[in-house]
TrEMBL record:
SUPFAM superfamilies: NAD(P)-binding Rossmann-fold domains. Belongs to the short-chain dehydrogenases/reductases (SDR) family. It comes from the Eukaryota. PROSITE patterns: ADH_SHORT. It comes from Caenorhabditis tropicalis. Keywords: Membrane, Oxidoreductase, Transmembrane, Transmembrane helix. The lineage of its organism: Eukaryota, Metazoa, Ecdysozoa, Nematoda, Chromadorea. GO terms for biological process: steroid metabolic process. InterPro entries: NAD(P)-bd_dom_sf, Sc_DH/Rdtase_CS, SDR_fam. This is 17-beta-hydroxysteroid dehydrogenase type 6. Gene3D superfamilies: NAD(P)-binding Rossmann-like Domain.
Length: 343
């Protein structure tokens, strides 16, 4: 051991960096091999997914069905249920492994009813293999000065309390199957982006919840997995909807706030928001769906999944910088963003 320590201390900087690179490369190769191993008996692994009306949830439900997995899909609307069932019948046959139902993650009563339903239907599967907390909203894309506490509560009710409420309701079914909890967070759980206050707060919160229960539920054989996607072009970031919410926030703002910021700021903020999403949002939503599916079906899933080029190459590296440097970068970027009239 002593000779090994001496050998390390005698390495030059270049040699040390080379060895670190080789170790990291070996780690990546081994991880890649292990992550390709899939669990067996997928047809007996029941999966419960929230937010299946559109987007990631809809895509994940279809992918699980294609692999023969029993899928319990929570939808907010009857239209979502009907269209999901139609898709299942059309692309997967008769969709016999799909059970879609109405569910509101903000309602204790609604979630409780679903939990009872799952308790009955998952008996033959030996419990619930995975719950996927996918349902979410972005909230208004505008500065905190234009928001009130109700906006924060509305977003948190869905993005934070929704996953907690859902997870707690099916925890005993997960314990029975020694299952998995898969939750979508965001790069906004790593980096606080200006103009996305309520969304960022809720995602930091749900990420923290997952980090806590990962340790608490480990003795029960339950694993916990977080997705940290960047921006993807789904109904969640519908441009017209976002623009309408910004307009609503401006119209409802107190007169002193409007005067402080000025109408030019408001118009520029609308344009910059659209430009940002058009530039950075990826249309390849299959990346997120595949990450979800891997977390559910891999024998060796990751605890965290970074998804999308902006997450991997931009936001995650940025999150590791010292806060002071982050502030300088935000300040530099602010030179090209709308300015309040009072400045």
């Amino acid at each position: 051991m002593i000779s090994f320590i001496k050998w390390i201390l005698n390495l030059s900087v270049f040699e040390a960096l080379l060895w670190l690179f080789l170790i990291f490369l070996i780690f990546l190769v081994i991880r890649n091999i292990l992550e390709r191993i899939q669990i067996d008996n997928l047809t007996k692994r029941a999966v419960f997914i929230t937010g299946c009306d559109t987007g990631f949830g809809r895509g994940l439900a279809s992918k699980c069905l294609e692999h023969g997995m029993p899928v319990f899909a929570g939808c907010l609307t009857q239209q979502g249920i009907e269209s999901l069932r139609a898709d299942a019948r059309k692309s997967i046959g008769n969709g016999r492994s799909l059970d879609a139902f109405l569910m509101d993650v903000t309602s204790d009563e609604s979630v409780g009813k679903v939990a009872k339903l799952l308790e009955e239907k998952c008996e033959k599967f030996g419990g619930l293999h995975a719950v996927v907390n996918n349902a979410g909203i972005t909230g208004k894309h505008i500065s905190d000065d234009f928001l009130d506490i109700k906006e924060y509560l509305k977003v948190a009710e869905i993005n934070l309390w929704g996953p907690i409420r859902t997870t707690m309701s099916v925890k005993k079914l997960l314990k029975k199957a020694r299952g998995r909890i898969v939750t979508v967070a965001s790069i906004c759980a790593r980096v606080g982006l200006p103009g996305l206050g309520p969304y960022t707060v809720s995602k930091f919160g749900v990420s923290a919840y997952c980090d806590v229960i990962r340790q608490e539920l480990r003795p029960f054989g339950i694993s916990v997995h977080i997705l940290e996607p960047g921006f993807f072009d789904t109904p969640l970031i519908n441009r017209q909807k976002i623009d309408g919410e910004i307009l609503e926030a401006w119209e409802q703002a107190p007169s002193e706030i409007k005067k402080e910021y000025g109408e030019k700021f408001f118009n520029d903020a609308r344009q910059s928001s659209q430009l940002f999403l058009n530039t950075i949002a990826s249309s390849n939503i299959s990346l997120v769906i595949d990450a979800y599916f891997h977390a559910i079906t891999s024998k060796y899933p990751r605890s965290r999944y970074q998804v999308g080029w902006d997450s991997i190459l931009l936001f995650i590296p940025f999150s590791f910088l010292p806060t002071g440097i982050q502030d300088y970068i935000f300040a530099a970027a602010g030179l090209f963003l709308p300015k309040p009239a009072c400045q």
